[in-house]
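Re-running HTH psq-type domain-containing protein to confirm reproducibility after the cluster update. Everything else is unchanged from the original entry.
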Amino acid sequence: MASTTKRKIHQYSEAALEEALHEIRQGLSTIRAASRKFGVPRGTLQDRIHGRVSEGPRKMGSDAVLTVAEEIKLMMDERILLKMDDQVRNGMHHFCGEILASNTGFRKVCQKKEPLLQKKLLRNGRSWKTSDNDNFDILKDPSRVLNGDETSFSMCPKTGKVIAPKEWENVYQLQQGNDKETITVLLVFSASGKTVTPMVVFPYIRLPKTVVDSMPADWFLGRSDSGWMKNDVFYEYIANGVNKWLEDNKVKKPVILFVDGHKTHLTLEISEFCANNDIILYALPPNSTHKISTLGI
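Result of re-run:
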């Protein structure tokens, strides 16, 4: 009959491992002698000394794809998604794949590493109905409902043909320039009719002084290599433009901001900043604001 006794592993402390490695590196002991003295397997010491195993707390298996902090963050985000509709949850499950959709072991590992996580989330979930009900009053206050949209202008548009008398030799003149060079203007309005500080994105690495001097002093100026909106430019505008305007005008938070669901508006940094500053960033279906956004109608 086969033995059912499980093999015991890690019958030594982390301190014993560190002391054994210290004596070996200081030349006070050989690997074999240190293994006998501190009860650490010789193979383990050899792997550490020769760099086959990275320094740090011991663990079994291959290197983890996610850090502990990232695992806990995913667990917390999944709980938050329970408050949202099926479409949002399914999109999150599709994005995370097996990590969130079917890997129950992942959840158990995270909860084991963070025992208070489950209790804390359950407590917050029960209090959400009472403490966050005031958030639904946002739609009743037009000053707290914001809508943002952007449009681009070509700096060197292509000219077309026109009908003119035969004797006219010069009807129009083509100007030399890059027909793909654009500037982008982002405007945000509140439902009460107020205009948030606008932003213009220029296709410059460094803004010329003439351009800066020609713009209104309170406008927010951005720059990108193409003149199109970029992730970092939009983040700077939300953090230093929209949020500052809300604070200066003493607008009650939280507020809701409707934007196009383009990928430039939906980064982790932007989402975390909005969450930490009581800005509910609501992404409309991408490339559809010309039909459903109040700024595009």
